[in-house]
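We emphasize that the prediction below concerns an isolated chain of 275 residues; any contacts that depend on oligomerization or on bound cofactors are therefore not represented. The input was used exactly as deposited, without trimming of termini.
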Amino acid sequence: MTLDKTQAAGIPGNNILQLLDDGEVATLVTVLNSSPLAVGAKLLVKADHQTIGDLGAAELNEAAREEAGRFLRGRDHTRAIKVSEIAPTLESFRETLLMFERIETEPRLIIAGAGHVGASLARLAALVGYAVTLIDDRAEFVSRELFASGSEQGINLIAAGEWNGAMHAAIGNGRGVSVAIVTRGHKQDEDCLRATFAARPDYIGMIGSKRRTNIVLDKLREEGFDTEQLTQVRAPIGLDIGAVSPEEVALAILAEIVAERRGGSGAPLSTWRRR
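Result of the prediction step, given as a token string:
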């Protein structure tokens, strides 16, 4: 589940607040039913397999830790599992029901460029549940009057004096962050990419034709940027849905960002019927 800091503060005996501040992902395992263990006992399993808390038995902690790794590699946000399903040799706890919950901050989307596509992407991503930051070096493009509806109030609007500092501050440590570069020109694209590479966010995409994006990437390659980093940039950004209008282009971009975050293929769901 996605937790904010207020919700996390209600979970005793762990350091979830620090985990959320650091942008980490973890699994919270909770004993659900009456068993030899205390109902409500919790074990927090971080992505690096470190654990905090105690379910009440060392061997059960280890089984839960191993299952938590498998759980995080999947797409579920919550799953209730009997111990007999994950550790059949633990006879004393066979009927114990454990709840596995994904703990992560809300996903963040940093959008560089508040033109028609950037503004449309910000509005759409906010509706989907992303924490959105929209940046432009033209203050009039990120005025609150342009984003005044209720669903747009949460969009963080930044008028950048210069791109490098604004992008660095917005991206932070890069964990759980997607960056969409949809500026108005090569120079702005280059400035944003330089700043973005340093933070290493989960996703980087850049709008433009094949020619335009290659010009930018080739320029940074000449400056000595790592080839592997450059090949990971989604450019041109978005899935091919035949988008034409700014709103459709925004939809294509957000679809790719969600697919990357969730591990989706981007293929039509109906293809399974044709196999």
